[in-house]
Amino acid sequence: MNLTARQPTPQPARYILAAALAIALVGLVGAQESMAELNERYSFPLSVGVGYRDLQPAGGFASGFSYREIGAELRVPFPAASTLQPFLRAGSLSVLESGSAGGAQFDHSQAWAALGLGYSTRFSRNFELGVEAAGGLYQSAFSNLSPGNTVGELGYLAEAGARIGLIPSYNLAVDLRPSLRYSRTAGLLDDFDGFYFGLGLALSWRFGQDPDAAAAAVRALRLEEAGRLPPAFAAMQSYYAANPFARVALVNAEGADIRDVELSFFQPGYMDAPTPSASIALIPPRGRVEVDILAAFNQEVFRTEGAVPLAGELIARYRYRGRPVEQRIPVSYELLDRTAISWDDDRKVGAFITPADSAMRNYASFVTSSLRGESLPQLNQALQGVAQLYAALASFGLLYQADPSTPFVRAQAGTIAIDSVSLARATLTRGTGDCDDLTVLFASILESMGHETGFITVPGHIYLAVNTKIPARDYREIHTDRSMTIVHRDQLWIPIEITLVGKQPFADAWRRGAELWRLYDADASKRAFYATAEAQALYKPVGLRETDLGLQYGTRAELLAAYRPELARLGDFSLAELAAQTARSGDKRDWNALGIAYAKYGRIKDAEASFTRALRIDPAFVGAQVNLGNLAYMQKDYRKALSSWQVAVKALDAQGKARSASAQMIQVNISMAYNALADFSSARTSFERAAAIDPERVRDFAYLASVGAGSGAGSRAAELSDAVIFVRDE
């Protein structure tokens, strides 16, 4: 049917839309977080709203009418994709002829309902944009078209539009909605069919809790078990900074992913800042992850005594539903003082060995200075050092005493048992200690002397080892019995049962240490050897509060009285079997070797008798002749030494061995003797003869070429004045 032509009404909608777009631009400028994060953070389960819309025909049909619409809406976003939002709308459209109050012939209303799908994305907390499309049905009602009757027709509609959302709070949204609508009747009243442009205003209430509200604090993570951690050990302070002191299981208790998790641990009072422990990209809903906890404790942990109960916190920073979250999870545990240890890893003893302790350095200095005159240049320095310390501590009154509460034998049997290991300064002050205390004390002092130490563990026991730096193939340099030493990294180590200190001689402690090691030859898994340096690479020494111990170490005379018998017994122990073997063989080389061994222990008369015995067997035996000269040199009889060495040189010349290694070493000895006699010209000449044979082999004696020329050369000469070279063969 045709309606009479009417003038089009003004279209202010374009101005309203321009204002809406300006507001949108302001919202875009304020955007700071990514849209994906904002969409997730501010998603809502459903919303209800009301709206008003003004429509204008897009063509020339029925343009003399006003089109005003009110409606209601239910919007339910998809849970997995909250930007996609299905909706249901229903409402009423009032169509009135301009100037009419509802009484014109074609005035009518339309009751409509539509289903649609929208897409909406946030650009900031308070601004979002969206597009949507919908389709539905309407029922028109013309009350004035036929007097006394209401005429109505069914029709359908489709529309597409945009949403410009301003959101003053999480739950309230105000939308400006430009749209394009197409409607078509299924009957004869088709004058109102066609496209309409509309601009509307909608208010909606969004259900759910504001994620920025205090009441909405996220606590998505929880500990799988109660927040009780295992004890922390102060002695492990440096270890915990890079290795875990605890392991916890975290559970995502929420129904959404937790992303970008950064976990740290903080203990007020004992840390300067939280310690980062783990980074986790994603924990799914109800997901579980196990995390190692690191702890960079400060020096305050060393000021505790006994077991101190502490309450720390795990600090978790993550993103949940697009929002950044910081969650603090309380945990409790005990901090054990620096003497505590658990025997789950025997290498932890390394943390208690403290060679940098000034008390250890002072005591080491007392021992070495007191026994400097007893030092034997030919005897292995590590062997001498540990023997001297053993005698000194015995003289000091140190004794072994089993720990009455948690001895090593019980503590080692269960890895969760807690034992106590005294620091070296505490054991030295107390004068007693169990096997681990004494091992720590001996190792600390020997390390401060410059000797490399280790420790051995066998079932129920721990004891000391010292590195001789002798290659494994040269075991006879230490003892004729190979089993008296332990090979580690192709070097010979001496095992010492230090619990015998003050009760039995050092030689017995050495013998017992070797026996304990051999006891487990058939099942080597029951014993273990650890070098202190290797253990401390993982377990660094504990921090110390150094104070003067105020101890009286005794007198030099007392220390000499304790050490000299020890050295004599050590010599007997080391040389008895070699002397017996030599007596049985009667070989000149064996007598020569025995003489060298006696000389190392300072037994000059026994050494001279052995070399003389070798020369009786073979008067042309150059080795024994050289070594007799060495003995004279060690007794500072330099002219007698020269006489013996010159006889040996002539013998080598006669044998055609003037350029042999032995001849070279004899020339070095001769140079040293001339140097001691202050005949520096002859000293240089003899060294030059030695260097002409093989300069590399005598590089350590190069000072002999410049003796007498300055104080530096003279000092070097004094250092090595007793370093004569014994000859085994020739």
Describe the protein.
Helix content is 31%, strand content 30%. It is built from 18 helices and 26 strands. The protein is rod-shaped, with a radius of gyration of 48 Å. Helix 12 (588-600) runs antiparallel to helix 13. The protein folds into 4 domains: 13-206, Porin, CATH 2.40.160; 217-336, Immunoglobulin-like (Sandwich), CATH 2.60.40; 343-538, Roll (C8orf32 fold), CATH 3.10.620; 586-719, Tetratricopeptide repeat domain (Serine Threonine Protein Phosphatase 5, Tetratricopeptide repeat, Alpha Horseshoe). A hairpin with a 2-residue loop joins strand 24 and strand 25. Strands 1-2-3-4-5-7-8-9 form an 8-stranded antiparallel barrel. Strands 11-17-16-13-14 form a 5-stranded mixed beta sheet. The longest helix is centred in the C-terminal third of the chain and has 30 residues, at 556-585. The protein has 730 residues and is an alpha+beta fold.
Q: Helix coverage percent of residues?
A: 25-40%
- CATH domain class name of the largest domain: Alpha Beta
Give unreliable regions as ranges.
4-13, 26-32, 410-415, 709-721
| Span between termini | 138 Å
| Strand-pairing-aware structural class | alpha+beta
Spatial order of the strands forming the largest sheet: 1-2-3-4-5-7-8-9
* CATH topology type of the largest domain: C8orf32 fold
Cα Rg? 48 Å
Strand content: 25-35%
What integer is the average pLDDT?
Answer: 87
Question: Which helices and strands, and how do they pair?
Answer:
Elements: H1 13-29, H2 35-41, E1 47-57, E2 65-75, E3 84-97, E4 108-124, E5 127-146, E6 149-151, E7 154-166, E8 172-185, E9 194-206, E10 221-223, E11 232-233, H3 237-240, E12 246-252, E13 258-266, E14 275-283, E15 288-293, E16 307-320, E17 323-336, E18 340-342, H4 358-370, H5 381-396, E19 399-400, H6 408-411, E20 418-420, H7 424-430, E21 432-433, H8 435-449, E22 453-458, E23 461-471, E24 486-488, E25 491-496, H9 506-518, E26 528-531, H10 532-538, H11 556-585, H12 588-600, H13 604-617, H14 622-634, H15 638-654, H16 661-676, H17 680-693, H18 711-719
Parallel strand pairs: 11-17, 19-21
Antiparallel strand pairs: 1-2, 1-9, 2-3, 3-4, 4-5, 5-6, 5-7, 7-8, 8-9, 10-12, 12-15, 13-14, 13-16, 16-17, 18-20, 22-23, 22-26, 23-25, 24-25
